[in-house]
Design the sequence.
């Protein structure tokens, strides 16, 4: 599946709910079912500090693709982290860099990506792209 | 300062009174995601009554000309309005002289002004400034900056588990090196009303000046700077139903008069030449540039508005509202209220179980309820409590018990969703 196919699938999963409470219940489920981040990765260099909540993001290369692992201390943020990992983890740097992120907007959770909410998510997405850029640069040197 | 027990002598504002006041605030009729707005973020900023809004429009329509030095009629009228506003503020705070009132952009600028100018005039290397653990960043960072610039030390007064300052430690921190104490009248996180009068007396007995951050106090309790004997008292207009962008520094005349200018520019000068510039008198010496004369006029209107209702009456009503909300919150399982002093203003910070404050705030927002979450610009306090932040509901006199009920019902739903 491509990144966009994954995004479309998430949009479809959420589109079955009209009521915001059901959407958020699903998001909370996503957060709860995200595998907790191994303590060894909860190190200062993996923390993305938001004003409101914090996000941890760990990245490593596995052959051609980047494996992302992450977590947050707030469950709603953790739910979105889970969705972002679904979309971005296991993809190549090129895929990550050339695909536009649209599912968060489409499923009506855009407010969580507003920089003013300062929950670490905007910085997390930026960090994912930076990892992609860094790994790409590293690969091209090899 | 009256205690809440003494305030009971005042009549409680009736439901009809409150409904009548609410009609002055059009924004309270807004709906958020289709639900009636419940605005419990008054600690961050208050809504503005029509009286203040129409004053702003009136001032721009009828009084707009740059003030002071203008020879024309309109400039004269604008100057009169601005200076009358200064007198209104002086009267509101119980200041002796109107020259003791300096207009600033807000509480933050007022504290920065004192930190800079007082630091220049009175502090030398090795001297000490005392703050408390519950200060807002705006009453910490300006002092850290002056400490760095002048080689001073910052000392911090701790608090007990209910959120009250430890006055014994406070007393022990006051020594011959201490130049100034900077303390919040009311904590923006805990709601604690600090024993300011006693703290000022203790500092003054050792010849130490005191700055009181009154941002969270003036909208909620009657304040008289002479009774308190404060050297500096600061607040922001927007937290007391006035406009954003203007605030007040009250300073005891003699202390204020000894301060060198904070910023240079127009208004603050006497004579300017390239060889030497001499400075204007108080209050103008500390107000460089064109002042916000529209803002000052609107602030004066806001102060008249709350004075007409009565700060004692507001304090009694909000105290009852806070008591009611606290009681209802405590019925929720896992509720932990942060700040449980006997002397509390209209602020309730809380956590429920291990739920993150962000999650509660976001879901309450979906139900039309505006609260604040996070560290409330008081990171050292939040860190000292070893919590990720709090959810904060902060009230104004236009809030009602019915709104508290809506809030509690919504919060119960949120907690079920998140548990």
Sequence:
């Amino acid at each position: 599946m491509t990144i966009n196919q994954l995004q479309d699938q998430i949009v479809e999963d959420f589109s079955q709910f009209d009521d915001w409470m059901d959407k958020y219940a699903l998001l909370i489920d996503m957060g709860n079912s995200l595998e907790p981040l191994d303590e060894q990765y909860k190190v200062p260099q993996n923390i993305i500090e938001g004003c409101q909540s914090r996000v941890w993001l760990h990245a490593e290369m596995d052959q051609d693709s980047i494996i992302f692992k992450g977590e947050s201390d707030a469950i709603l943020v953790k739910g979105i982290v889970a969705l972002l990992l679904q979309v971005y983890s296991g993809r190549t740097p090129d895929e990550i860099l050339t695909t536009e992120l649209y599912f968060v907007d489409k499923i009506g959770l855009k407010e969580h990506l507003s920089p003013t909410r300062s929950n670490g998510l905007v910085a997390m997405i930026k960090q994912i792209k930076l990892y992609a850029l860094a790994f790409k640069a590293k690969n091209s040197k090899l | 300062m009256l205690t809440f027990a003494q305030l009971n002598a005042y009549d409680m504002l009736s439901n009809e009174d409150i409904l009548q006041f609410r009609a002055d605030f059009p924004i309270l009729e807004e709906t958020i995601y289709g639900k009636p707005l419940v605005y419990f973020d008054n600690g961050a900023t208050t809504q503005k009554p029509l009286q203040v809004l129409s004053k702003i429009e009136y001032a721009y329509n009828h009084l707009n000309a740059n003030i002071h030095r203008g020879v024309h009629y309109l400039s004269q009228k604008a100057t009169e309005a601005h200076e009358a506003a200064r007198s209104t503020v002086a009267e509101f705070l119980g200041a002796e002289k109107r020259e003791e009132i300096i207009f600033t952009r807000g509480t933050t600028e007022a504290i920065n002004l004192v930190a800079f100018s007082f630091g220049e005039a009175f502090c030398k290397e090795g001297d000490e400034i005392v703050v408390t653990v519950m200060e807002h960043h705006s009453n910490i960072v300006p002092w850290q900056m002056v400490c760095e610039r002048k080689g001073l030390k910052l000392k911090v007064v701790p608090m007990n588990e209910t959120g009250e300052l430890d006055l014994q430690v406070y007393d022990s921190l006051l020594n011959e090196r201490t130049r100034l104490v900077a303390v919040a009248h009311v904590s923006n996180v805990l709601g604690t009303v600090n024993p300011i009068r006693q703290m000022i007396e203790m500092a003054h007995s050792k010849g130490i000046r005191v700055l009181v951050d009154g941002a969270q106090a003036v909208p909620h309790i009657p304040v008289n700077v002479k009774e308190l004997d404060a050297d500096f008292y600061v607040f922001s207009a927007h937290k007391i139903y006035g406009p954003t962008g203007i605030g007040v520094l009250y300073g005891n005349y003699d202390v204020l008069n000894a301060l060198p200018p904070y910023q240079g520019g127009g208004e603050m000068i006497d004579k300017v030449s390239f060889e030497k510039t001499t400075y204007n008198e108080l209050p103008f010496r500390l107000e460089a540039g064109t002042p916000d004369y529209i803002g000052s006029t609107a602030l004066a209107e806001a102060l008249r508005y709350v004075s007409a209702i009565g700060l004692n009456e507001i304090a009694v009503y909000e105290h009852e509202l806070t008591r009611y909300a606290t009681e209802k919150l405590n019925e929720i399982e896992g509720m932990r209220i942060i700040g449980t002093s006997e002397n509390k203003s209209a602020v309730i910070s809380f956590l429920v179980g291990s739920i993150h404050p962000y999650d509660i705030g976001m879901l309450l927002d979906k139900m039309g309820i505006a609260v604040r979450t996070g560290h409330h610009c008081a990171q050292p306090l939040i860190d000292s409590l070893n919590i990720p932040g709090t959810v904060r509901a902060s009230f104004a006199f236009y809030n009602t018990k019915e709104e508290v009920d809506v809030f509690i019902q919504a919060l119960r739903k949120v907690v079920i969703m998140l548990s």
Notes: Chain A has a mean pLDDT of 91. Residues 74 and 135 of chain A are 29 Å apart (CA to CA).
